[in-house]
Amino acid sequence: MSVPLSLPPARRTLRTAADLAAAGLLPEAEREAAERVGARYSIAVTPAVAGLIDPADPADPIARQYIPDAAELLTAPHEVADPTADAPFTPVKGVVHRYPDRALLKPLLACPVYCRFCFRREAVGADGGVLTEAELEAAFAWFAATPAVREVILTGGDPLMLSPRRLEAILARLAALPQIELLRIHSRVPVAAPDLVTLGLAAALGRIEAPLYLCVHANHAREFSPAALEALGRLHRAGVVLLGQSVLLRGINDSAEALEGLFRTMLRARVKPYYLHQLDPAPGTARFAVPVDEGRALLRALRGRVSGLAWPTYVQERPGGAGKVPLGPAFEPV
Ligand code: SF4
C-alpha cells in the first residue's frame, strides 16, 4: 500500500522501529533490536491495526502479532526458510502446485501488515514481488495447460493489495478457463486494512463468474473491529463466501476462551472458521509455538462448548511440501 510519508504516524502505515516508537507501540529500550529485526524482515502496522493495540498492555494479543521482537534474530535448529516448501513445487514463477486438483497463484508478495510468525517471512515484504505482465501470462498459460487443476488459490502476499481492476482481471482470466470450478483468495486485508475493501472492490469480486471463496486470516476476536465487520459485510453482500483461517499462537489465542471468542466472533461476521493452523517453523518464530498435544486439548475443550459451525479443522503442514494433515483431536466412538 503506498501512502504519503508526510502524514503523521497515526494516519499512515508504520514501517520502521522509529515509527513504532514514535507511535508509542515500541518501548525505546527495544528500538535498537527492532531496527535489526526490521533490516531482515519487513515491518508494517496499518492505522487500523495500531488503533486496536493497547500500548499499556505488555501482553496485548494484537501487538504480539505485529511488533518486532529481538527473538526473531534467533533461528532455532528445527526452523527453515521455506517451511511449506513452495520453491520445489513451483512450475512457473508465482505458481505453487502441491496437490493434483488445486494450485496457488501468488500475484504479489506485499501485505498490508507483516505478521511476526509468517511462514513466508523470507519471501514476503515491502519490495512487493509483483509478477510482471509476462510472468502473469506464463502463469495463465500454465493453468490453461494443466486441466487437472480445478481450483486456484490466490495468495501471496495479499491479493487484496492489488487494485480492484487488476484483481478482477486476474480472477476473470482464471474463471474463463473451462476446467476452473473454484477460486479462492487468502487475505488479511478485511481485518488489517478494511478501508481497502471498497464498494468498488466488492463489486469487482461480485462480477466474477466462478464461485469465489475469501479466506480471512485472523487470530483474535479483537481483530474484528467495526470497520472490519463493515468490510466483511460488503464482501458478503457481493456474494463472496467467507471462510476464516487462524494460526494457533502462544500469547495470542492459546486458551479455550480466546479460541471460543475468535470463532464466535468470526461466525457473527459471517465468516465460517475453516482452518486452525499449527505454526510452521519459519525462522525466528519459536516464541509463538504451541505443542500439538496442547492444541488438541484446546480444541477438545471447545467441543460441545461452541456450535459445530465454530469448529475449524486443526491442521499441520508436513515437511517437504507433503501437504496438510488434520491433527484431530480424535474422539472414541460410544
Ligand atoms: S498477511 Fe499472511 S503472508 Fe502477509 S505477513 Fe501475515 S501471514 Fe505472512
Structure description:
This protein is an alpha/beta fold and 334 residues long. It folds into 2 domains: 9-73, no CATH class; 87-326, Aldolase class I (TIM Barrel), CATH 3.20.20. Helices cover 29% and strands 14% of the residues. The protein contains 11 helices and 9 strands. Strands 1-2-3-4-5-6-7-8-9 form a 9-stranded mixed sheet. Helix 9 (226-237) links the parallel strand 5 and strand 6 (241-247). Helix 6 packs parallel to helix 8. Mean pLDDT is 95; it is low at 1-9. The protein binds iron/sulfur cluster (SF4). Residues 111, 114-115, 118, 120, 124, 157-158, 188, 217 line the site of iron/sulfur cluster.
Produce the secondary structure layout.
Blueprint: H1 17-22, H2 31-40, H3 47-50, H4 63-66, E1 95-99, E2 102-105, H5 133-144, E3 151-154, H6 164-175, E4 182-187, H7 189-192, H8 199-206, E5 212-217, H9 226-237, E6 241-247, H10 256-268, E7 272-277, H11 292-302, E8 313-318, E9 323-326
Bound molecules: iron/sulfur cluster.
Broad structural category:
alpha/beta
Tally of separate helices: 11
Q: Which strand order does the major sheet show?
A: 1-2-3-4-5-6-7-8-9
CATH topology of the largest domain: TIM Barrel
Bound molecules: iron/sulfur cluster
Number of domains: 2
End-to-end CA span:
54 Å
Q: How many DSSP E strands?
A: 9
